[in-house]
Specification:
heterodimer, A: 249 residues, mainly alpha, 12 helices, B: alpha/beta, Glutaredoxin, Rossmann fold, 15 helices, 23% strand
C-alpha cells in the first residue's frame, strides 16, 4: 500500500507541476459553471433549461453535463500518464523498480482519481452553496450526486489510463480517450435506435445512464455501485495487461 | 559467415514479430475477456434484489410508504399477470419494459411473498392473447427506427391483477406511473366493491364527438370510468320528484345551470343522508360561435339563481358569488386565434395564433393551494377559467368551512364579460380601472364538513310537472325533510371548465393532467381514500429561486403601481426601475462569478503554495 501511495504522490507532484493541469481545471470549472447558469442542456430527449431560465434551485443541469465534460477532462488529465513516461524514457526505469505492475497502475489510478474527485468537489460545492443561497436546495441530492460523480470520474480515469497506456503519444491518448468516453455518453442519446435486445443491454452498460438514473437524483443503488466498481476493476486490469505486455516485450 | 548472421537476424526478427503478434492477440483476448466479465457481472448484479435508497427530500425515486402500507394489507396472494411482448423492435420501448419489470420486481419484494408475477407474451402465446383480449387489454402501436425509415409494431405491455376473485387491469404499464397504477388497483381490490359515484349535470348520451356542447366532460368521465362505477343521475328525473339513488358512495354535480329547486332539494337530501358530494358550480358557460372567425361568447343561467344552488350555498355559509374572479397577479396565459383584418378593416378570413394573458383565467400558484388539505397538499397549481368565488361568511353552527384554493391577493370580483376579449390592451385597461377598488383574495373552492342545515326545512319544493303545469319554485309539499341529519362532506368548486374536454382553439384551461389530478384527489378525499391521494400526488417540491429583480424593485418601493402618478413621478419611477434592473443583473453576475472565482482562487492558491514548496525542497 505504501508503494501505491508513493507512486500516487509522485503522479500528483508531476501533475501539479505542469501548467496543463491548471489550464484544464480552469477551463473545466468556467465552462461547467457557464453551461449550468446560462446555457442549460439543449440536447437529449428532454432538454433542460439553465438555472436562471428554469428558476428551480437544483443541480440537475450541472450533473447532466458531467458525463460529457468529464469525458473531455479526464482524458486531458490522464493523457500524459503513460505516454510521457515512455517519451521521457522513465517507463523502462519505472518497470525495473521492485514493484508489481499492479501497484504502479493502482498508484497512477489513485492519483488521478483523487485529482478528479478534488476537482468535482471544487466545482460542485461552490455552485451548490450559491444555489443554496438562491433557493431551497435539496442537499441530500447534492451529496449523493457528488458521490456518484466521483465514482463516474474514477471509472473514466481507469478507462482513460488504459487508453493512455495503449497510445504512443499524449495527443493520441487524449483523442482516443475522449472519443471512447464521449461515445459512451453519445450512446445513451442514441440507444433507442439500436435493436431492442441490444438497446436494453447498452442502456444498462452506459456510465452516464447509471449516474443520471440514480445518484444524480439522490438515489443510492447498490447495483450501480457494483457496476462502477467493476468498470474501474476492468480498466485497471486492462491497463496492467498492457504494461505487462510491454515489460515482457 | 555473413549469410549466417543475416539468417540469425531474420530468425530473431521473426521471433520478435511472432512474440509481438502473440502479445497483441493475447491483449485483445484479455480485453474481450475483461469486457465480457463486466457484462456478466452487470447481468448477475441485475438479479440481486434491489437495494435502492432514495435520499432525496422529495423521495420520488423509491417506493412510497403508502405502497408498503397497501401491500401490507394483502392477506392472500395477489397474482399479477403481465402481458408483455418479448421481442420489441423499438429501443425506447424495450428500455421502458425493462424499467417496468424492475419496478414489478421491487413491488414483489416489498409484498413479501404475497405477490406473484407471471409474465406471458401474447404475440407468441395464443392463450395469453385470448386472456388479454378477454379482459380488454390490447396491444398498442409502437414506432421503431428501422434502417432509414420507421416501422410500426403492436406491443403488449399491460397488467391484469387478481385478488380474491376480483380483477383489476392496468391497460398500459408506464414506468412513470406504474407504482400509483398498481397500488391504486390493489387498493381498489382490497375494498369490498368498486365505488359507485353518481354523475349529474351532463347527460350521458351527449355527443362525445363535440367538446362544445353544454356540459361536455367525456374525457373526465372516461378516466373516472376506469376505476369507478359512474351512475347517471338525470336532473330531469330529480325535478320530477325522483330521489338521488341511496347506494351511491359519492355524488358529482357538474356545471348545473338554472336547476329547478326540486332537483337541488334532491341533491341536498342525498347530502343530508351522508352521501359525500362534489359540486362544480359554474354559471358561466363559454360556447363557440362561428360567425366569420371562431369566437367565444358567454352565456349563463337565469338570474337571480344562475346555477340553482345559490340559496343552498348561502344556507351552508359559503355563498356563491354571481361574478367571476379577475386576477391580475395570477393571470393565465393561453394561445388564442385572432382574426386578421385587411386594409379596409374587414376580416380577411385568416387568423393568427397569439399568446394572451388574461386575468379571467386564474393560474392558481402553489401559494393558492392549501398545504394541509390532502387533495391540494401535493399539487403545484391549477388553472380556472371565469371562476366564481365563494364569499366569506360565518358557517352555521356545527359546520366547518375550509377554503383550500384561492386567488392571489391582487384580485377582484367582476361582472361577467359577455364576449372573450382578445385584446391585451383592453384587458390591461380593465385591470387599471379595477385597481381603484379594494382587492379581494377570493376562495375558489370550499370544503364543508359537519351537520349542514337544510334550507328546505320549512317544506320540500314541489316536483315539476310540465304536463299538469304544477311545480313552480314557490310551491312546497309536506313530505319529510332531513335537516342536519348526518355528518356531511361537501366540496364546492367555483369552476367546471378546468375538467372540460380540451379544445385547441379555446382560451379555457380544459382537462389538463393537473386538473384530473385535483379532481381525482377531491373525489378520493370524499371517498375517504387518502392513501391514493398521497400516492398520486407525489410531485417534486417547488424550489423557486429568489427573484433578484423583484427584491430590487421591492427595495425601491416600485412593486405597487401608482395609478395617479404625475408625469414627473412616472419618469422618476422608470429611471429607478432601470436602476433596479441594472442592480439585479449585476447581482446575478456576481452570484455566478462567486463559485467560479472561489474554485479558481483555491486552485491558484494551491498551485502557488505547491510550487513554492517544491522549489524550496529542491
Amino acid at each position: 500500500m505504501r508503494s501505491v501511495l508513493a507512486i500516487a504522490g509522485r503522479e500528483l507532484r508531476s501533475a501539479f507541476e505542469s501548467p496543463v493541469a491548471y489550464a484544464v481545471i480552469g477551463i473545466f470549472v468556467v465552462a461547467s459553471a457557464g453551461l449550468f447558469f446560462l446555457v442549460g442542456l439543449p440536447v437529449g430527449r428532454v432538454p433542460l433549461p439553465s438555472l436562471w431560465e428554469g428558476g428551480e434551485a437544483n443541480l440537475v443541469v450541472l450533473f447532466a453535463w458531467l458525463p460529457l465534460s468529464l469525458g473531455l477532462l479526464v482524458p486531458a488529465l490522464c493523457m500524459n500518464s503513460w505516454t510521457e513516461e515512455r517519451r521521457a524514457g522513465t517507463e523502462e526505469l519505472f518497470l525495473t523498480y521492485p514493484l508489481r505492475v499492479g501497484q504502479i497502475v493502482l498508484g497512477k489510478f489513485v492519483a488521478h482519481a483523487a485529482l478528479v474527485g478534488l476537482l468535482l468537489l471544487l466545482l460542485v460545492l461552490p455552485v451548490a452553496v450559491t444555489v443554496g443561497q438562491l433557493g431551497d436546495l435539496d442537499w441530500s441530492t447534492v451529496w449523493v450526486g457528488l458521490g456518484g460523480a466521483i465514482l463516474l470520474g474514477a471509472a473514466y480515469v481507469a478507462l482513460a489510463l488504459w487508453i493512455s497506456a495503449l497510445a504512443s503519444d499524449p495527443l493520441v491518448a487524449f483523442l482516443l480517450g475522449s472519443l471512447a468516453l464521449l461515445s459512451l455518453w453519445l450512446l445513451r442519446l442514441v440507444v433507442e435506435v439500436f435493436p431492442a435486445s441490444l438497446a436494453g443491454a447498452l442502456d444498462r452498460l452506459t456510465p452516464a445512464a447509471r449516474f443520471l438514473g440514480s445518484a444524480a437524483r439522490g438515489v443510492v443503488d447498490l447495483r450501480d455501485g457494483l457496476y462502477f466498481v467493476s468498470l474501474i476493476a476492468a480498466g485497471l486490469v486492462l491497463n496492467a495487461a498492457v504494461v505487462e505486455r510491454r515489460r515482457d516485450a | 559467415m555473413r549469410s549466417s548472421r543475416m539468417a540469425r537476424r531474420t530468425r530473431l526478427g521473426s521471433s520478435m514479430r511472432c512474440r509481438s503478434g502473440r502479445a497483441s492477440s493475447g491483449l485483445l483476448l484479455t480485453t474481450l475477456l475483461v469486457l465480457g466479465v463486466v457484462i456478466e457481472v452487470d447481468r448477475l448484479v441485475g438479479r440481486v434484489p434491489s437495494a435502492r435508497v432514495d435520499y432525496s427530500e422529495d423521495g420520488l425515486y423509491g417506493l412510497s410508504p403508502v405502497t408498503a402500507r397497501v401491500l401490507g394489507q394483502l392477506e392472500d396472494t395477489l397474482s399479477v399477470h403481465a402481458f408483455f411482448t418479448a421481442e420489441i423492435e423499438s429501443g425506447r420501448a424495450a428500455i421502458e419494459k425493462a424499467r417496468v419489470e424492475a419496478q414489478l420486481e421491487e413491488l414483489r419484494a416489498l409484498a413479501g411473498g404475497r405477490m406473484l408475477v407471471d409474465v406471458r407474451d401474447p404475440s407468441v402465446d395464443s392463450q395469453a392473447e385470448l386472456d388479454a383480449r378477454t379482459h380488454g387489454l390490447q396491444a398498442r402501436p409502437v414506432q421503431a427506427a428501422q434502417g432509414t425509415g420507421l416501422s410500426r409494431q403492436l406491443v403488449h405491455r399491460s397488467l391484469l391483477l387478481r385478488y380474491r376473485g376480483r380483477t383489476e387491469r392496468v391497460a398500459w404499464a408506464d414506468p412513470w406511473t406504474l407504482e400509483a397504477d398498481v397500488v391504486g388497483a390493489v387498493a381498489r381490490m382490497l375494498r369490498d366493491r368498486r365505488p359507485r359515484v353518481g354523475w349529474a349535470g351532463e347527460r350521458f348520451d351527449s355527443d362525445p364527438r363535440s367538446s362544445w356542447q353544454l356540459g361536455s366532460f367525456h374525457g373526465l368521465r372516461r378516466q373516472l370510468g376506469r376505476r369507478l362505477d359512474l351512475v347517471a343521475v338525470d336532473s330531469a328525473e330529480l325535478e320530477a320528484g325522483e330521489a338521488v339513488p341511496e347506494d351511491l358512495d359519492a355524488l358529482v354535480v357538474v356545471q348545473p345551470l338554472a336547476w329547478h329547486p326540486r332537483a337541488v332539494f334532491a341533491v341536498e337530501q342525498a347530502i343530508q343522508r351522508g352521501t359525500p358530494a362534489l359540486l362544480l358550480l359554474d354559471s358561466v358557460q363559454m360556447h363557440a360561435h362561428a360567425e366569420g372567425q371562431r369566437a367565444v361568447h358567454a352565456m349563463r343561467g337565469d338570474p337571480p339563481s344562475p346555477t340553482g344552488f345559490e340559496a343552498l350555498t348561502r344556507s351552508w355559509g359559503a355563498p356563491l358569488v354571481p361574478g367571476h374572479v379577475w386576477d391580475a397577479a395570477w393571470a393565465g396565459e393561453r394561445g388564442v386565434l385572432v382574426s386578421q383584418l385587411g386594409a379596409d378593416g374587414r376580416p380577411t378570413g385568416s387568423a393568427r395564433r397569439e399568446e394572451l394573458r388574461s386575468p379571467a383565467i386564474v393560474e392558481v400558484a402553489r401559494d393558492g393551494m392549501s398545504a394541509t388539505f390532502p387533495p391540494t397538499a401535493g399539487l403545484e397549481g391549477i388553472a380556472f377559467g371565469w371562476a366564481q368565488p365563494f364569499a366569506e361568511a360565518e358557517p352555521p353552527e356545527g359546520v366547518t368551512r375550509l377554503d383550500p384554493i384561492h386567488s392571489s391577493d391582487e384580485a377582484w370580483v367582476v361582472e361577467l364579460v359577455e364576449a372573450l376579449v382578445k385584446d391585451a390592451s383592453v384587458l390591461e385597461a380593465r385591470t387599471a380601472t379595477l385597481r381603484r377598488d379594494p382587492r379581494v383574495r377570493s376562495a375558489l373552492a370550499t370544503v364543508l364538513t359537519g351537520r349542514l342545515p337544510s334550507p328546505f326545512r320549512r317544506g320540500a319544493p314541489a316536483p315539476l310537472d310540465l304536463v299538469g303545469g304544477s311545480g313552480t319554485s314557490a310551491e312546497t309539499t309536506d313530505e319529510p325533510v332531513l335537516d342536519a341529519a348526518s355528518e356531511a362532506r361537501v366540496v364546492l368548486v367555483g369552476d367546471a371548465d378546468f375538467v372540460r374536454d380540451p379544445d385547441p382553439y379555446e382560451l379555457l384551461p380544459g382537462l389538463e393532467p393537473r386538473a384530473l389530478l385535483l379532481f381525482e384527489n377531491l373525489l378520493d378525499w370524499l371517498l375517504a381514500d387518502e392513501d391514493l391521494i398521497s400516492l398520486r400526488s407525489r410531485l417534486p417540491r417547488a424550489r423557486p429561486l429568489r427573484d433578484l429583480l423583484e427584491e430590487e424593485l421591492d427595495a425601491e418601493g416600485l412593486l405597487d403601481a401608482g395609478l395617479h402618478d404625475t408625469v414627473a413621478e412616472l419618469s422618476d419611477r422608470a429611471r429607478r426601475r432601470a436602476d433596479a434592473e441594472r442592480r439585479a443583473e449585476a447581482a446575478r453576475w456576481s452570484l455566478m462569478a462567486a463559485p467560479v472565482g472561489t474554485s479558481l482562487g483555491v486552485v491558484l492558491l494551491f498551485g502557488l503554495l505547491w510550487n513554492q514548496r517544491e522549489r524550496r525542497r529542491r
